[in-house]
Amino acid sequence: MTMINRRSLIKSAGAAAFAAPFINKVALGDEPLKVGYIFLGPVGDWGWTWAHEKGRKEMVAALGGKVTADYVENVNEDQSAIPVIRDLAKQGHKLIFTTSFGYMDQTLAVAKEFPDVKFEHCTGYKRADNVATYNNRFHEARSVMGKISGMMSKTGVIGYLGSFKVPEVVMGVNSYAMAAQSVNPNIKVKLLMIDSWLDPAKESAAAETLANLGCDFITTHTDSPAALQVCEKKKIFGFGQGADMSRFAPHACLTSILDIWSPYYISRAKAVLEGSWKSGDSWWGVKDGSVKIAPYNKSLPENIKAEGDKIMKGWADGSYDVFTGPMVDQSGKERLAKGVRMEDKDLAVIDWYVKGVEG
Amino acid sequence: MSLDLVIAAFLTVVNLSTPILLAATGELVAEKSGVLNLGVEGMMLCGALAGFAVTFACSDPDLADAYPWLAAVGPWLGVISAAVAGLLSSLLFGFMVLTLGANQVASGLALVIFGTGISSLIGTGYVGVAIQPFDQVFPDALAQAPIARVLFGYSPLVYFAFLMVAAVGWFLSRSRAGLVLRAVGENDLSAHSIGYSVIGVRYLAVMFGGAMAGIGGAYFSMVITPLWAERMTAGRGWIALALVVFSGWRAGRLLGGAYFFGLFMTLELYAKASGFSFLPSQFWASMPYLMAVLVLAVMSARSRGGSEAPACLGKPFIPDA
Prior knowledge:
Chain A is of the alpha/beta class. Chain A is about 40% helix and about 20% strand. Chain A has two domains: about 5-135, Rossmann fold (3-Layer(aba) Sandwich); about 140-260 and about 290-359, Rossmann fold.
């Protein structure tokens, strides 16, 4: 397993371009399958990219000598991603995971040039014969946090620290708000987007802002534990994501969403090895073992823990869905009738917030 | 808006402004001597990591048992280490541009890449651990008091930043050594011909810039978010650079500019969180680029507007050529 940084990758691109026609002729069974990953942040962000990196490592471990996997970290979500993805393909990677929403069009552009390479784009919605999409249902675990906040909030105002208005974040906000409203219909969710996934100073400033404006719970949908450190200092509660962030806020962090990517990565690499890989959209959640929550904080009362477990169990056996109507948007318009569950195709492109979300 | 909220918001402003102010103060001195060091971001990251790592090492429980005083001294050692780390990284730049006469822009960019890379590499071992924040120097009675905290509730580095701005302002405009430094930056050949060591002065200025950038970086990893994350300065080094230009190379305006930036960012957050945004978020996101355009405009017209740009900024000094 080699670590590739962006510069050495670009340097070796010339050589790879030369070698590419030969690599294509090598039968897959003869040597390990080369899997490539494009990462948004550094693998040490203790959040989003860290979780993908963990999935990558677990895949390599699980499939023994049959796969090798390289990654490129800190790839911007702009046109500069195209040459990086292309280089991975030219170097003989036959399965490439691009792990952020902002690589969508770039992935499709490169996929056209390499019809025999399989691409997997995380959190997107555009597909091709050799481009599949995949995502985790983080919003499922987000509803546990909403429930806890709804049961425990004293101010009736809870905060949501977001990055960008993309479907994944909108789902998280709505799930958090609806689960909280199931306990306290009047609860308000203050939403604050910081236009960045990783900017600890701004995450911290935003969390302070939410706390100062009366939020006694903050759930974070950005990539560092900065907001939780603010919660700890301000003596309010918060939730982490991507990894168990309780070590950064032993009192404040009540639980965290755990992104478990390895089941998906293992299954897709296996599919390529067996020749059964097909494009499609995979959206795994609690029931597939792809979304879990970290152990609850010791201070959490038993009845609240039980409510959280009930939701996780409900997601696992299909008896619970936070997006069950009635769903009303911010303007008061009913978007989903009573008792109806939202379909995945609508959920995947959701761009409106439910009533009670401010900001 | 209650007074309490205003004070709480002001604490956020200070947190956002201070690291930029620290780094920009150092860069101001370097640029006044005629050296354009674009590597602020890289030096800040080196400082951020060093400050965190040393503080973390000093908070080791086994060490704390043996040397109980260490935990209290730890953050101060951390700040010193941050300064040293920034200084060492700036020496690398200094060697290239001053001793070897390399292009300053290219070397500065190389320093950013170097600082980002080496801090990420060494920092791998510090991911996932936290330290106590270095965010208070006065006793609780003052620092936590509802009103008094607006004066006393900050990290020592905040007061240090104010002190340094004043000191640098005095140094550049009132002291003899500052006059020499400015002479080197305005006309290197003349300074050289009357016997001043242009290279020596520039080395000192670059080292000072590096040390201040390092301390600015430590403000992220020790005060705002007492943890280490790769690239945690998130581009603030570039803002510090822009700020020096904005301020027209004057220390007083630097202070105003840094706090304007912090205020601007805090207002944005409060506006958004209060459910109204007086400007669409795309506008805020495009701010850095608009700012860059503005800075370029200011630079191209720098003979006007009270700017004190040094005439030899960015020019390599090769006396016998």
